[in-house]
Each structure stands twice: as structure tokens, then as C-alpha cells.
Amino acid sequence: MERGGCVYIMTNIFNTVYYIGVTSDLYSRVIEHKHKRYPTSFTSKYNCIKLIYFMLYDDIEEAIEQEKRLKKWNRNWKIKLISDHNPDWLDLFSEDL
């Protein structure tokens, strides 16, 4: 059985630090970031608590490949990707979902 996946980008409240990740459960993963479940992680250290971009994939392997590609992009390309999908850089996550 194929498992879907999601590539996502988190940032801090100043939109200055970007974390690119991949998961099969976006809701649970973002909760972990927001509540700093892993205090020594990159997202905890740099206060990355805003979900500013995500893209769903039918296959987790496809999501992993996209994550690897995005991590190689320069900063301006990442900013354009985020701005094209989320022009106001709003937090796209709600615990009420």
C-alpha cells in the first residue's frame, strides 16, 4: 500500500529562518514543532512555529525527493515559492482542523 506524504516549510515569527521537512502526518508534525516537542531540534532552537508552505503528494517517496530538491534551492527561490502560494506569509495551520 502506498503512503502519501507532504513537504512543508516552517519559519519563525520574523520569517527569517526556514525549515524544510517531509512527513506522512502534517497535522501531528506541525503540532510537534509548535509545542517544541524536541527542545534541541533546529525548529525549537530557531523558534520555527509558523507553517508557511506545504504540498501534498500521493507517494511519500515523491515527497522525499521534492524535499531534497527544495533544500538545494537558494534563498530567493524559496522566498518566491512561499510568496507564490502564501503571499501574506500567514500561518497556514490551525489546531482546530
From TrEMBL:
SUPFAM superfamilies for this protein: GIY-YIG endonuclease
The GIY-YIG domain, residue ranges: 3-80
Organism of provenance: Pedobacter psychrodurus
Pfam families: GIY-YIG
PROSITE patterns, A to Z: GIY_YIG
InterPro entries listed in its UniProt record: GIY-YIG_endonuc, GIY-YIG_endonuc_sf, UPF0213_domain
Name of protein: GIY-YIG nuclease family protein
Family, similarity comment: Belongs to the UPF0213 family.
Signal peptide segment: none
